Amino acid sequence: MATDAEDVTDRPLLERIERNPEIMLGKPVVRGTRITVELILDLLAKGQKVEDLLREYPELKSEDIRAALTYRSHRPPS
Known about the structure:
CATH architecture: Orthogonal Bundle
Strand content: 5-15%
Number of domains: 1
CATH class: Mainly Alpha
CATH superfamily: Winged helix-like DNA-binding domain superfamily/Winged helix DNA-binding domain
Shape: globular
CATH topology: Arc Repressor Mutant, subunit A
């Protein structure tokens, strides 16, 4: 479990992720997009490089990918 210090440090990244029941059925997405945390993590797990993700999804920033990883590290698997 993350400590309070980690939570404060991670807060700006975590704010890049939102859950809205009207967007992608409430799945966590990169704020302002329909790109799910799940998609980002699946692509990374399959070996896709960050640079490739950024090229394939130009609306993403490297901070968004870090935010997805940080979000996942703060949540138990579903």
